[in-house]
């Protein structure tokens, strides 16, 4: 059953390009952008506008490679790759701005977020003063512009025909400037209040065309790790907008992610100045750092982990005698009686797995198994115990029939059956689908394995003899349909385990192991 594929939509990973400068200390610029894009679920690419020599304390130098080489980088990407969103950061000078503006006009990327980087957190300039006006031509190509308060004032001046505008000192003033920039460019403006004095760090998404202002508020986080917050926020918004298609939702989620990353920045202990935010802190704590095993590896590990239990089952006098046909009728019938009792409740447990299964394929599989367990197995037992010659190939004496039937219907569950069922029913009652599915698996797997090896003569040739007293019983063990269902069950359970957290996977393994030990006790009971 290829359950998962049909029911789980595969998420399209946004392909996001950062056009920005390099920060070798890794906290801002393209380095921050690539981390941010990845952290919120995108595939990051970068075209480098400039190299800086900087660290958390400041910028020591800026090298701007020939603008043609930036054009070559951009063309190499767009000639080959569909770009879902672009984030533009440090542009260094007017020539670079022209190259980027020309490329944007030619490529019609669906989402353009422009972070008009002018001055680093440290106070060092990252854009030539004479390039500030050139920015004016780039602004209408953006869907969203994300200036801090200083940059916002410069942009407000630029769109007001180069009349200087003083940086906003109040949040209301900042919003008014953002409205002016939005009205002049058609772009949305995210005015950022990170540089405002006071205990709040508000942002406002302003769209003059729809007269909309959406404010985002949040307490200022007490930290020195604010290097690259602007870069990180803008790349996260670009990525999330490509995924969500809703600016307010994209900014809201980007802000939540940035705030989480800000809180963990100092713990990175990077540099003595303004350190970087910890871009992956949330992922590390929620998703873990270890790789997840593949379903097939889990199957091998769990099966290998019960090797001692399986060897002990193989060595049981009951199994040996069953294989060579020397098993007395009485313990065999006692076993059948316990198996019938077991299967009735096992069917209930399988039905519970069906009820808890997260998708229709799982539901159907376990419901089918519950049905099979009830109808198929019980019918066979009853026929065995009533000596139906057609079903068994071996006619039983009539007196035995009555005894057999009486046995199966009158027997009480013995200690092994009770313990096994209590384990399964309790696991079902706890309501964790994955753990329950792991708990019911050994009953499939151990039986099929045993059946296949009995049929292959691993326990002696007598098991293959059509005259064997329990021939038809042995046949049901080696039923190919049961083998197919078992492979499906293994696949279903190990896929669930591969997707589970390490803790949940361990709970699944423990439930699997416990059931395997109950199988051993169950097989041992008739001759105990
Ligand atoms: N200490 C803080 N606590 C909470 N949020 C903050 C803090 N500092 C910055 N932010 C947030 O980080 C984002 C970037 O804001 P900021 O105004 O600092 O932009 P920027 O100046 O471009 O960035 P940078 O400070 O990296 O140069 C905004 O969403 C802002 O609200
Ligand atoms: C290469 C580069 N680009 C941008 C910034 C600004 O970073 P931020 O304003 O996010 O601190 C920076 N310091 N270095």
Automatic annotation (TrEMBL):
* A GO MF term: kinase activity
> What pathway does the annotation place this protein in?
Cofactor biosynthesis; thiamine diphosphate biosynthesis; 4-amino-2-methyl-5-diphosphomethylpyrimidine from 5-amino-1-(5-phospho-D-ribosyl)imidazole: step 3/3
The segment(s) forming the Pyridoxamine kinase/Phosphomethylpyrimidine kinase domain are 23-277
User: Which UniProt keywords are listed?
Assistant: Kinase, Thiamine biosynthesis, Transferase
Is Lipid metabolism tagged as a keyword?
no
In terms of CDD domains, this protein maps to:
HMPP_kinase, TenA_C-like
This protein's source sits in the domain of life called Bacteria
Q: Which reaction does it catalyse?
A: 4-amino-5-hydroxymethyl-2-methylpyrimidine + ATP = 4-amino-2-methyl-5-(phosphooxymethyl)pyrimidine + ADP + H(+); 4-amino-2-methyl-5-(phosphooxymethyl)pyrimidine + ATP = 4-amino-2-methyl-5-(diphosphooxymethyl)pyrimidine + ADP
Under the heading Pfam families, the entry gives: Phos_pyr_kin, TENA_THI-4
All residue ranges annotated as the Thiaminase-2/PQQC domain in the record: 317-524
What role is this protein assigned?
Answer: Catalyzes the phosphorylation of hydroxymethylpyrimidine phosphate (HMP-P) to HMP-PP, and of HMP to HMP-P.
The UniProt entry, under PANTHER family, shows:
HYDROXYMETHYLPYRIMIDINE_PHOSPHOMETHYLPYRIMIDINE KINASE THI20-RELATED, PHOSPHOMETHYLPYRIMIDINE KINASE
Q: What is this protein called?
A: Bifunctional hydroxymethylpyrimidine kinase/phosphomethylpyrimidine kinase
